[in-house]
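MODEL INPUT / OUTPUT PAIR
PAIR INDEX: 1
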Amino acid sequence: QVQLVESGGGLVQAGGSLRLSCAASGRTFSSYAMAWFRQAPGKEREFVARMLWSGGTKYYSDSVKGRFTISTDNAKNTVYLQMNSLKPEDTAVYYCAADLRPTTTPHYWGQGTQVTVSS
């Protein structure tokens, strides 16, 4: 049974940083595409970042490019999202997701972690 458990969210001032973690379990993820999405109140869920667990090119939405970094730690079976220079518009619930192929509708999702950026 696949489990994705996010942590690391919280309240931060604009300009600050947070690192989100996604602990993955239940299978070997080396062939999976791992992604982060977010959903702000009253808005649709949107793509944030994606990479193959095994490495390679990383993809980011234009709104976070240059500020956020996605990475994986094989030893810890964990995916990270380092978020720097946070803005109030980054406030959202952030979700970790996994699928065997890059997609906007991954099969597996975590429960989400709240990120709130104050101005």
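PAIR INDEX: 2
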Amino acid sequence: EGPLVESGGDLVQAGGSLRLSCAARGFTFDEYAIGWYRQAPGTEREGVSCIQVRDGDTYYNDSVKGRFNISTNGAKNIVFLEMNNLKPEDTAVYYCGAAWACSGPFGSWGRGTQVAVSP
């Protein structure tokens, strides 16, 4: 495994909620931006949300604004993606990556966690 590990994916019904976690192995996120991206079959990877951990600035794709929330834990070694009111179009493999800023480029991708939303 790499330096980032995603978890929390599951199969849920539309309207349900999930919380994804992106955990750091052996370091903290203090000086990094952590981004969540997703990729559905046959599509390109798209940005979902990002947090600049140092100052707490957050960014969201328009498609998830008002439904998803990104945050960190107190130790700043886990980034969460709280996903509410899930829709079938949210179905994808979700990945987290690290960068110096939310403008990217991102790297150190984890292996991803599968989110499936049934109608």
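PAIR 2 NOTE: The beta strands are 4-7, 11-13, 18-24, 33-39, 46-52, 57-60, 68-72, 78-83, 92-99, 113-118.
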